[in-house]
Design a protein that fits this description.
With 248 residues, this protein is an all-alpha fold. Helix content is 69%, strand content 0%.
Length: 248
Amino acid sequence: MNEPALTNLLFRLADDELILGHRHTEWTGVAPILEEDIALSSIAQDEIGHAQAYYVLLSELGAGNPDTLAFLRPSNDFHNAQLCELPNADWSFTIARQFLYDTAESVRLAALAKSSYKPLAQLARKLSGEEKYHLLHGRSWLNHLGHGTSESRLRLQAGIETAYPYALALFETTPEDDALTADGVQPPESELRDQWLAMIEPLLAEARVVLMKAQAVEGGRRGKHTGHLIKLLEDLQLVYRTDPEAEW
């Protein structure tokens, strides 16, 4: 097993979950309706919990303490796709991003459930049970907005058009990919991407959303991020960095 390649993959998985989970928490108290305050807060809690589970696997591989990995790394050490760090904008963008992300995650978890790295395969099977509810939430809102008013459909279309180029980069290739495939850890990113596209295209069409061709906005997997991540990490890491030795 190529341990550096495995470690790189786990950082991608963990960082995606942590950063998107934090973005979801920003809707707490200001979501359009009370039920969504609760729903998105619950999803955020799940995502951050999933991030912790991946960081624990990293810790077992010698990468460091999970809290240190989450709260003491600078932005250029994060491997999340830029999709996760973008500001929430309006509700339609948040739903578009959640739908694109959760469908991609469902495809990846299904593949990882068969991974040759048994701790990851076991974790993927466990997380899939929670993620199906996240996907159900995103699909429900996708259809609600797509079949609502003309304004809601236009806003959803705009949200998908904004998020889609960044979502393509969830499958950004890295130099470690060949080793992951050779070791049976996961299939090639291109294969996962094609499965994802086959999944989302009919669902978007059902919601009356046109999926335009786009170029992937890549870089996140290599530590290249927007200024939005720097500000997000300042907020996320502030308390821990105040006293890293404190016990809570």
